[in-house]
# Entry
Amino acid sequence: MISFKRLHKAAFAFLAASAVSNVAAQELNCTVEVNSSAIEGSNKSVFETLQQTITEYMNDNKWTNAVFSPNEKIECRMFFTIKEYQDDRLKGDLQVQLSRPVYNSTYTTTLFNFKDTRIEFDYREGDPLIFNDSSWDNNLTGILNYYAYLLLALDFDSFSPMGGQPYYDKCASIVQMAQSSGEIGWRTFEDTKNRAAVLGAYTDNNTSGMRQLLYDYHRKGLDEMVTSPDKGRAVITGSLSELEKVHKNAPMSVALSIFRDSKLDELVNVYSKAPQTERDQVYKLLEPIYPTDRERLDKIRKPEEQP
# Structure
């Protein structure tokens, strides 16, 4: 169950931090996995050490001034797939996932599910990772800092309208520093799915409505469905109109694919007991946005036909 404090943490984070001792649990409970199966050789100790080092970095650092109790930690996952390793340079991709509990239930919902295919960094076994988010040290800590703050921003947004702003600001600062580093994955317009583009999906004027969607869908929608399914589902239906706006203003935005990978399967369950008119409405809204996902969308429109 989500505590009252957790529900209001985004709104009162800094007030709480000034009034309560900072002796509290860190914010993240991040599961880290480093998969090196594509790398030949029997000595895998560098990858095992890297996995442990990243785990400690994400979970032991204090990222905010907010006070979290142990049961309020934010659940996330980072799955690194290493494809190349030469001269202490690692290249591969990174799947990042963020989940959130739904109020008064045992259900957890996915807030964010994204595959970063521009992962490159230098790492020598035994090198410490030093936390510093105000200056550029190396690409690995830059990537970790970026995703830690992005996940915090998304989580806080889901509990309070625009509650994640301080952490989007942190992400923006990291992206700005990174763009002069020469590392890939950071430059604006480099591609439509790099780290700069993901940040822009939530902060650019054409797509920032995704932040209101985060709040409406989760706090006013899913959190209410346990006690009032029809009311909560109606709010979720209304929140999806933000996708239409994003599709109209920025049809290539990574915001749309992030939502698809995080939410389409969940929506099948959300509308499994909805009136046909509501299911038709949602299908009509989503089909032009996700024309290649008709199989999943058909499960929203006609769940009774599914096995």
